[in-house]
Amino acid sequence: MPSFVYRAADRQGQTIDGVMEAPDARGVAERLQRDAYFPIRIAPQEERRAVFGLAVPHLGRRRVTRVEVLTLFQQLATLIEAGLPLDRALVILEDLAPNPRLRGIIGDLLKSIRGGSSLAEAMAKHQPRPFSRLAVNMVRAGEKGGVLEATLKRLAELLEETQEFKETLISALIYPILLTLAGTGAVIFLLTFVIPRFVDIFHDLGQSLPLVTQILLSLSTGLQHYWWLVGLVVLAIVLAVRVTLSTDTGRARWDRLLLRLPLVGEVVLKSETARFARVLGTLLKSGVPVLTALGVVRELTANQVLSRAIERVSEGVRRGAGIAVPLREAQAFPAMAVHMVRVGEETGRLEDMLIKVAADFESEVRRLVKRLMGLLEPAIILVMGLIVGFIVVALLMAIFSLTEVAL
Questions:
Q1: What is the pLDDT of residues 351-360, one digit of tens each?
Q2: 191/219 Cα distance (integer angstroms)
Q3: Closest residue by Cα to residue 199 from 226, 217, 215, 213
Q4: Averaged over 231-246, what is the pLDDT?
Q5: Residue that terminates a domain, selected from 20, 42, 61
Q6: What's the rounded Cα separation, in Å, for the pair 364 and 268?
Q7: Shared-domain flag, residues 180 and 246
Q8: Three-state DSSP class for 229?
Q9: Is residue 189 over pLDDT 70?
Q10: pLDDT above 70 (res 342)
Q11: What CATH number has the domain bearing residue 131?
């Protein structure tokens, strides 16, 4: 999403400068007007600088990462807990920010707060990046309840736990991906550099070759001469998948298929359930209204099937049916999660029960991922071994057949 530099004035005539990410300049103007500011100047942020007459990317304006946002909330909560006023805490964080773009955003927050805006209103100008709707709603609820310090701590804990959970899943996938890339690279090397040398030898001898060897040589020759066609086919498949997933119908079908896959579907369902429970529990504990919290959770849910189920839960809450009953009627989430939510509602400890659900399901997902990787890694090794074995056997059969002819 492009960034825009803006200057705006409030009703008292005070001007503010800042940086905002939006689809276009009109989006920046509308967001400023909603915050009671009058746009004076809006221009695309300069992303390139001239060096020796050439335009090169401005490396100092890199995007704000999730880890940097997490660190920001952790430091802000610590400074406020130490008794510093909010504006003074932001001044310190502006000096400490290593990322120039983050420093500019903190400076814009500081100007907005000194201009009379709340922290949530100032953060909303930089939504959805780097501040998500989740963060803005939690901060708004914390400011209304007078517990901003506790809310910032809770938000930092939520982001930290979410980041750790995501890194655990990514770390588990690194080895299978590297194994697949290494095996694929080895096979391509054999087909394009090793096998062609045997082709010349076999052709010079002029003897008939076994069928397996002929298939191998045809594959090698085809990859050498038509590698561009293979690339085009792969590119076409990738584009077709992206176009299909960009439509609501295609994405819904894919998400439905993903949930039905053995073991993989269970991992997806339980990881999404853990995210649903943790985010919803944290929002409710921070004082965010139920319907607003469900709306935030629905936006954060990647799977369209579960997202629509959460929307049906929201409709049930509007009817006064609570959360557990429409959650059971949606028939999308695990039965154990539904039962635990019902117990939480009955005992008046829904927020704590949701956090407990999240912890239990995150632990279950880690176990499932470990099990899945335990099955995937030998499967990759087996497939690569069969491919390499096919190549070796094909070459050996050709050599043996030529030796028999010579004898």
A1: 889 989 988 9
A2: 8
A3: 217
A4: 89
A5: 61
A6: 11
A7: yes
A8: helix
A9: yes
A10: yes
A11: 1.20.81.30
